[in-house]
Design brief:
The chain has 24 helices and 22 strands. By secondary structure, the protein is of the alpha+beta class. Strands 15, 16, 17, 18, 19, 20, 21 and 22 form an eight-stranded mixed beta sheet that branches. Strands 5, 9, 10, 11, 12, 13 and 14 form a seven-stranded mixed beta sheet that branches. It has a four-stranded antiparallel beta sheet with strand order 1-4-2-3.
Length: 664
């Protein structure tokens, strides 16, 4: 139905088809009657832009102000969520609004303060969809769910922590505790991410010292342990493990240790202290004073570790503190996690802003639930500098402090967020002014070869053949001074007979750049021809024929003296042998030679292994394979009788072989 309406609109606007003829055809369609009044009431100009209508809440447009004015009356004024969608159906942006009509209208018109990326998003969109909800809070929840599900390109993006480490408590019998950089949704418990390797090492050393746990990957099922499948290892003898693999430690006792490890990682230090004190009293009551002394030493070690954490105040228990610092393109959200009055974790996450209408409230409402989930926060109080609606966080209160310790915590968080923002700007400025070693080399090459542009894209050609047999050519590509092997290309010579390097080079260069031009791909800044003036002149014939002589620099390199030749110049250029630019040219030349020689050798090997039986008229490759497999060699096939050949294949093959070799 959509194609039929598109044909109707195109015909109406371009006047290539009479409207009454198309109307008659459309009226035969059962959906045409219900839609016809709508189409006849819209101007011909708008008909050219509206492709189809899929209901009351979807518009396919070219996103112009005139189009929106024509459809604005159909956009509701209720709260809801709107979506900009491209022609392929991909969601570009998801937003919420108290009044959908007013909010969507703000994207159209001639506002001078609208940033470029917002204009680009609207230009890329093909339609707007919206969903009406009862309240603004419902719109916030729906917006958050859609962003998480579809990850629209132009919505704010909370950068992930793929380079950070986590502590994993594996979901298995007698769980292992280890460091990982990947989070698998297998039911295991993850703590982190940890940006500080020093802190991560201290935590793991503490866990290892307090709670001996297994490190092996054995399947410690009841069946395997009861059958005596395992033996104690060195970890047991040096007291790093209590050998649950041979039933020297019960699952209940092991899981109690895992519970305390979780308490440490969550910052519940009080529960760990109570656990150690209870164990110490129990062992003392059972007259096991030596083991009680070991527990006391562990408790002392834990107290020493806990003392290094920053104590805020005894009046503050479990709270999360968030603040944000932002500019036009990015924002940083700082998070301070406080458990039982101690700052146990701080982290600053970067937000990429893709549109200019993101406000602080929406950024915080988006990032806080994600960060709390990522860092496994159980706090029921969040400290912020403003009231923010947080979707999906029921039972959590927001505090906006004015004075006191909570205000100091908020100021500490704000200070960190502003520091990250300023530091990031400094890094960007420094990076822009900094030149990498490869950039310096390419700059030197530009000067050595007297080029107009820096040779970021280099291509080099080479031919390979022996006495004119199995000719092959290759093109290798260097980008930013390094080989780009996915762009390498082999060429089998098609139009040249015999050993003719010049004609082969002319053919290959023409084929390469004819294709790049046809496909709209960028041309290289520098083309290197492996050879002297002859090969270079042949390559230039194709370059001039394609009309791209002024769009790139073409040089030839002679192998003996490493001379660089230019078109129409008989005097070569001698680059200093120690110049880094010459080394890259030599590397490209050697790589092209290696790559073309590989194809040549493969072709030659294939020809050498070709059976002469394929020259027999009427016999194909599969038949030859069957004969060789049966008789073992071509020689034995030629010596076989007709009856033997017929038995291996059929009588017709035997007749053809005997006729070809004159044995009939």
């Amino acid at each position: 139905m959509g194609d039929l309406w598109a044909l109707y609109l195109w015909g109406r606007c371009c006047e290539y088809v009479k409207p009454e003829i198309l109307n008659q055809k459309l009226l035969l369609h059962p959906e045409a009657v219900s839609q016809r009044k709508l189409f006849t009431s819209i101007s011909a100009t708008l008909l050219a832009r509206i492709l189809t209508i899929r209901g009351k809440n979807t518009f396919f447009t070219t996103m112009t102000t005139e189009d929106f004015k024509a459809m604005a009356a159909a956009v509701p004024r209720q709260p809801g969520v709107y979506r900009f969608i491209d022609p392929e159906g991909t969601i570009l942006y998801v937003g919420k609004a108290k009044n959908l009509r007013n909010r969507v209208a703000s994207y159209f018109g001639e506002r001078k303060d609208r940033q470029h990326r917002t204009r680009v998003m609207v230009k890329k969109a093909a339609r707007i969809e919206f969903t009406i909800v009862n309240t603004e809070a419902d719109a916030l929840l729906l917006e958050n769910a859609l962003i998480k599900t579809h990850q629209p390109r132009y919505n704010v993006n909370l950068k992930d922590d793929k380079n950070y480490s986590y502590i994993c408590i594996k979901k298995e019998r007698f769980p292992r505790v280890f460091i990982t950089r990947q989070v698998w949704r297998d039911g295991s418990t993850y703590f982190g991410p940890y940006t500080s390797k020093g802190r991560l090492k201290k935590i793991l050393d503490l866990v290892k010292e307090l709670f001996p746990l297994r490190t092996c990957k054995y399947d410690l099922s009841e069946k395997n342990i009861e059958s005596g499948k395992f033996k104690v290892c060195l970890e047991y003898h040096i007291k790093n493990c209590e050998a649950p693999c041979v039933a020297k430690e019960s699952e209940e006792a092991y899981n109690q240790k895992i519970d305390q490890v979780k308490n440490i990682l969550r910052g519940n230090y009080g529960a760990v202290v109570r656990h150690f004190k209870g164990e110490m009293e129990r062992l003392a009551g059972e007259m096991e004073f030596e083991r009680a002394q070991q527990i006391m030493e562990k408790l002392q070690a834990f107290n020493n570790y806990q003392a290094k954490s920053q104590i805020v105040t005894t009046s503050i228990k479990d709270v999360d503190v968030f603040s944000i610092a932002m500019d036009e393109k990015e924002a940083y959200v700082n998070y301070i996690k406080i458990v039982e009055g101690a700052v146990i974790y701080t982290n600053t996450q970067e937000l990429q802003l893709n549109l200019d209408d993101e406000d602080i409230e929406s950024l915080l409402s988006y990032s806080i639930p994600i960060m709390r989930e990522r860092f496994d926060s159980q706090a029921t109080e969040i400290i912020l500098d403003r009231e923010v609606e947080l979707p999906g966080l029921e039972g959590v209160s927001i505090t906006v402090p004015k004075i006191g310790d909570k205000k100091k915590l908020l100021e500490l968080s704000q200070k960190n967020a502003k520091y990250y923002l300023l530091n990031r700007k400094k890094q960007k400025i420094s990076h822009q002014n900094r030149q990498t070693p490869m950039e310096r080399v390419l700059k030197i090459m530009q000067e050595d070869l007297n080029m107009d542009a820096v040779p970021l894209h280099i291509e080099c050609f080479d031919n390979s053949n022996i006495s004119g047999t199995n000719p092959a050519s290759a093109c290798v590509v260097f980008k930013n001074g390094k080989p780009s092997k996915k762009d390498y290309r082999h060429y089998t010579i098609k139009t040249v007979e015999g050993p003719n390097d010049f004609a082969s080079m002319e053919e290959v260069v023409h084929r390469r750049y004819r294709r790049l031009l046809d496909e709209g791909e960028p041309l290289p800044q520098l083309v290197i021809i492996d050879g002297g003036k002859g090969q270079l002149s042949s390559a230039m014939k194709s370059v001039r024929l394609l009309g791209i002589e002024d769009r790139m620099t073409v040089v030839g390199i002679a192998k003996k003296l490493e001379e660089i030749y230019y078109p129409n110049d008989s005097i070569p250029l001698h680059i200093n042998k120690k110049s880094p630019s010459l080394k890259i040219i030599q590397q490209a030349r050697d790589e092209a030679h290696r790559f073309s020689l590989r194809l040549h050798r493969n072709k030659r090997s294939k020809n050498f292994t070709r059976s002469e039986l394929l020259d027999v008229p009427g016999i194909g490759e599969k038949t030859v394979q069957a004969l060789i497999a049966h008789f073992g060699s071509t020689k034995k096939v030629k010596e076989a009788t007709a009856a033997e050949i017929a038995k291996a294949t059929n009588l017709n093959v035997a007749k053809k072989l005997f006729a070809h070799y004159g044995k009939g």
